[in-house]
Design a protein that fits this description.
Two copies of one chain form a homodimer. With 165 residues, chain A is an alpha+beta fold. The first copy, chain A, is 35% helix and 19% strand. At the A-B interface, strand 1, helix 1, helix 2, helix 3 and helix 5 of A face strand 1, helix 1, helix 2, helix 3 and helix 5 of B.
């Protein structure tokens, strides 16, 4: 077994015999919600402070129809929610704000940020994301509930002990 | 500012004025490599122990042409590498093994796994990923280089201090 593979609990049946292999997989289900690259870009801009339609289209560098489609889908999926606002002399418009469900994608986006930085960019990127109070850069770190940083060779795939069947 | 937004360093120019906003973004670049859901599924199965063509197609529940296309793309992008093997009486075939670049996507896949578990599945999933030596479940946790767990409201987007310009 390669050190990058996750150990499969020997009590599990062979993976070929698993039913509903994708329907039961949370990675597959997550990607059903995040089905396009532009969905990730709209969420990126929500984390970076965009709330208004024009900001999303311009900052994600996507067309207005694409921005409208993504904002609609992400709102329907519960990752963003609409809040009405009105500027003097204008009609009422909607702002789009991350819900708890959308905000919980931060570790995913940060992991993609750092992976791209390490493996796609050769000479470093212009931007960084840091811990405001101490100034150190942040990353999404594989950590267990006991607080250990877990290297890939020490991961085990098992039945969920919190689920009866 | 909402607590889920990342603080933008006030020294930065307004985001609308940034040139090359996507070309300079490591999230955008990462998603260029991971352009399809089936690419994530093939990588998932590589982490779960698949090495052979038939295993990838069957365990990711994708067609053989899709499996062949994804394995070729992921190999060309340097996430998997081919190792020849030969079984008695058979022709030489290739196994596909995660490279360091591919293996470094583990935090991304784990973050998607936990997000899907928390937000897409109502009543818990069958599987879990744990720290083999202590038995506690793992997650991808936003952590700074000083070892602090960083809540979303304490993140700051800034210029990369390690890059001259």
């Amino acid at each position: 077994m390669s050190a990058s593979q996750i150990q499969m609990d020997p009590a599990l049946p062979p993976r070929e015999s698993w039913a509903d292999i994708n329907d039961d997989c949370p990675i597959f289900q997550s990607l059903g919600v995040l089905s396009t690259r532009s969905a990730f870009l709209v969420l990126r801009e929500a984390f970076y402070g965009a709330t208004r339609f024009d900001q999303f289209a311009q900052r994600a560098d996507i067309s207005e129809p694409v921005a409208a489609a993504r904002l609609k889908e992400l709102t329907e999926a519960g990752l963003l929610e609409k809040h009405p606002y009105r500027e003097p002399g204008q009609r009422t418009r909607n702002e789009y704000v991350l819900t708890d469900k959308g905000a919980d994608l931060l570790p995913t986006l940060l992991a993609l940020f750092r992976w791209g930085e390490r493996w796609v960019f050769g000479d470093g990127i212009r931007a960084d994301i840091a811990h405001a109070s101490c100034g150190a850069s942040v990353d999404a770190v594989v950590t267990c509930e006991h607080g250990h940083r877990v290297p890939p060779g020490e991961l085990r795939f098992r039945r969920n002990p919190a689920r009866a069947s």
